[in-house]
Task: inverse folding
């Protein structure tokens, strides 16, 4: 006979059920919102055209640069593509001085970034750098200057809201993450970086403005086995987003910048975290409502608040507190310390869900240790741990099933399932594989995340068992580095054709 605590935990877990019928309905709605976003701006899902009109196939060669300004650090990388789906990466990382995050002018910050690129080139590409200086000096009298192929092409991952108006053009909408340089708002961030690079006479051209999710798609497409191009790059980590390859003919809203029309396709950044902000098909528990009310952005990013690692720990925290309020959990000599993350909004790290899912022991020793260390609850008993495991499992499973809605809907929308080589039975021929690249702590470290996702994928309208079998899900690493370099490569092709 189960205890009152276990019965209560089961009731809470049941609230996080997401049924097959709900998956079916949500998949249809996801496609509807995708199509609305392709028609016009200002819709629930932004569906941002990226001006990237091709994905790599693993045969590309060359050395490209990538820089990543995503928060308090600035990363500079050079990526040597070997042409056989492999690459070599060299990188350096430096902290952004606090005073530059709130500088009076954009020039101060971008001069610092350009200086780091120069230092990186001198350290890791000294011969190329020195020969460039020699060529520049000898070619100074020539109108043509130095030859174009001696210039490094650079992909710029800039993880702040921008209005992209070309593959290497985008104006800053606003700063986030502690940056506040009013002078930069409304300016083209690629041009700001290029001006700073040119002032130092560096052999570098800013070829592409990069979203890290688009980079994930590119990275996976280069490194994935076989000849099938990747259709979707998805991040399931602290946040969640997806970028996919769409038919150009389906993008009805205006495109401002130049792009290569010859491929007939373009990568679209979905910004799917805001899918169904209206809560037409998304599940909503009392814990979801409380989380949203206390968030910095109530009423928006509703899909992300049910799927991403930033929020799953908070859902668990709210559920545990509800049980504690009813004197059901942590009653047997266990005490929640005053410094416990359970007492702090968003204090519980989502990694505890992975620990809970992975611990299959009778005494749940690993989970109880995590409760003691991460939650600052001493002497939690097996019953307490079992209840937390039950609820954590339900929250994680729901997140995976919701992820399947997004992945499945995009695979269906892409049209890749419309063609088949006719392989019989359970066999899937290479030409029929639909490749999906994923990145992020949730998909990498949460046990059975893909298993739960695949079970729900089969229920997405237009997918079924036969479609799900054709989907190959693989880890895509370093979208902001390798992916950015690959977009710089693709961008150079665009420059030559427009």
Result:
């Amino acid at each position: 006979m189960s205890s009152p605590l276990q019965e209560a935990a089961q009731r809470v877990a049941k609230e996080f059920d997401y049924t097959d019928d709900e998956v079916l309905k949500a998949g249809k709605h996801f496609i509807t919102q995708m199509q609305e976003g392709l028609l016009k701006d200002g819709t629930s899902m932004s569906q941002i055209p990226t001006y990237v009109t091709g994905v790599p196939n693993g045969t590309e060669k060359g050395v490209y640069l990538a820089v990543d300004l995503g928060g308090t650090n600035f990363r500079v990388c050079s990526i040597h593509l070997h042409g056989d789906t492999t690459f070599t990466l060299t990188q350096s990382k430096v902290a952004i001085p606090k005073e530059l995050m709130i500088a009076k002018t954009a020039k101060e910050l971008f001069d610092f970034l350009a200086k780091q690129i120069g230092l990186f080139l001198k350290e890791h590409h000294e011969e190329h750098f020195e020969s460039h200086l020699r060529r520049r000096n000898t070619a100074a009298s020539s109108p043509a200057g130095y030859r174009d192929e001696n210039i490094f092409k650079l992909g710029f991952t800039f993880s702040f809201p921008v209005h992209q108006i070309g593959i290497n053009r985008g104006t800053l909408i606003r700063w986030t993450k502690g940056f506040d340089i009013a002078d930069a708002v409304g300016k083209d961030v690629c041009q700001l970086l290029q001006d700073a690079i040119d002032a130092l006479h560096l052999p570098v051209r800013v070829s592409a403005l990069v979203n890290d999710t688009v980079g994930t798609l590119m990275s996976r497409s280069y490194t994935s086995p076989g000849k099938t191009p990747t259709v979707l790059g998805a991040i399931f980590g602290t946040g969640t987003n997806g970028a996919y390859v769409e038919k150009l003919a389906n993008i009805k809203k205006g495109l401002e910048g130049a792009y290569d029309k010859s491929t007939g396709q373009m990568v679209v950044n979905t910004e799917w975290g805001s899918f169904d902000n209206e809560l037409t098909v998304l599940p909503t528990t009392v814990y979801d409502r409380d989380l949203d009310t206390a968030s910095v952005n109530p009423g928006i990013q509703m899909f992300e608040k049910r799927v991403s690692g930033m929020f799953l720990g908070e859902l668990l925290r709210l559920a545990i507190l509800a049980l504690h309020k009813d004197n059901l959990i942590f009653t047997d000599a266990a005490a929640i310390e005053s410094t416990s993350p359970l007492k702090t909004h968003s204090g519980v790290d989502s990694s505890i869900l992975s620990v809970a899912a992975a611990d299959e022991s009778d005494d749940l020793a690993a989970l109880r240790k995590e409760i003691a260390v991460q939650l600052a609850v001493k002497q939690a008993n097996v019953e307490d741990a079992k209840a937390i495991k039950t609820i954590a499992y339900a929250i994680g499973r729901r997140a995976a099933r919701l992820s399947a809605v997004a992945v499945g809907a995009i695979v269906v929308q892409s049209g890749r399932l419309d063609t088949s080589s006719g392989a019989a039975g359970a066999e899937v021929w290479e030409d029929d594989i639909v490749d999906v690249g994923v990145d992020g702590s949730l998909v990498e470290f949460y046990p059975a995340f893909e298993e739960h996702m695949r079970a729900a994928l089969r229920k997405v309208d237009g997918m079924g068992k036969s479609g799900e079998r054709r989907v190959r899900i693989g880890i895509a690493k370093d979208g902001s580095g390798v992916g950015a370099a690959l977009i710089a490569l693709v961008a150079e092709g665009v420059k030559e054709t427009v």
Remarks:
- The chain has 17 helices and 15 strands.
